[in-house]
Amino acid sequence: MTIIKRRHFLGGSAMIGAGLLAGGLPRLANAQSAEITVTAFGGVWEEAVRTCFVAPFEAKTKAKANVSLGGPPQWLAQVEANQAKPPVDVLIMTPDLALTAAKAGLVEDFTVDKIPNLSKIPIELTDSVMGKGTLFDYGVGGITFHKERVTNPPKSFAEFVDRVAKGEFVASVPSISYAVTPIMLIWAMAKALGGGVDNVDPFFEAMAKMKHNLVFWGGPNDFFNHLSSGEADVGIYFDGRTWNHYDSGATWIDFINPEEGGSLNGVAVQKPKNANPLAWDYINEVLDAQNQTKFADIMNYGVTNTDVVYSDKLKPRITPWQKTAFPPYEQIALVRNEWVDRWNREIGR
């Protein structure tokens, strides 16, 4: 797929009179505080956000960025409840909730005049959330395995299903309690096996074939424990988390992007309406190539600025987003509850 860059989206020059300075300089409008609240997940995510985005933002603007920890549903609810004065100025969202925010009119349009570094983000990743945000990093849901026990791992979803069904090894897959399961497992496997959003029968048929050789994980650490203990040999998991385990000493673990393409699970950044205009400067740092390079080195996940050059260590680990299966997030949201109900009836775990 050819990457299209959004270099002149909506054109127009920056409006100094409105507090917007060309080139992404600080927007210190008289009525606005030189302090914003941004969002981050906990753990290593918080460390990466503070190091890669907050620090350069504060250095350039001399403003302060406070970090609010939590999750997308919580942040979105807070913004919806106080639209005139949102409690956070920058949102970190899963794509489905980013679309919810966009459709509800809670967030602003992303344009190059507001965010110069947006020109370096493939337009497809911005369009995926209706242009009211963009994806800045992503993980791939693929096949992770214990390479000492699985010396010839399956290279595709189809091969994975066939060999698990035959009892060649036990597989660990995410349970329906895990939030991303409808995308990384149900949709991705259905698509790989000839179905899609409108037909997930191939997925449920595959699960029925494999049922005697499956265990389920409800959280990422559960999966790692399954492989390390020998309870499972292979499974569906994320690339970045796989490499984090590897770097922590579990050098027996490895990852494969299935031939059909593992699901792209992106993270979007958005600005609520009526949030402090300084949020644009912060978002510009989130989309900066140098900052994203540092973020990728910490997180072991792919990033989206096309000028990013991965380190020799990271480059073989990162799956280009063009080689993933790009989920139709909006369509999945419409049928997600039906899938969950069917899972509960037919699989139950």
Automatic annotation (TrEMBL):
The keyword Iron does not apply. Transmembrane segments: none annotated. Signal peptide: none annotated. Keywords: Plasmid, Signal. The keyword Protease does not apply. SUPFAM superfamilies: Periplasmic binding protein-like II. NCBIfam families: TAT_signal_seq (TIGR01409). This is Extracellular solute-binding protein.
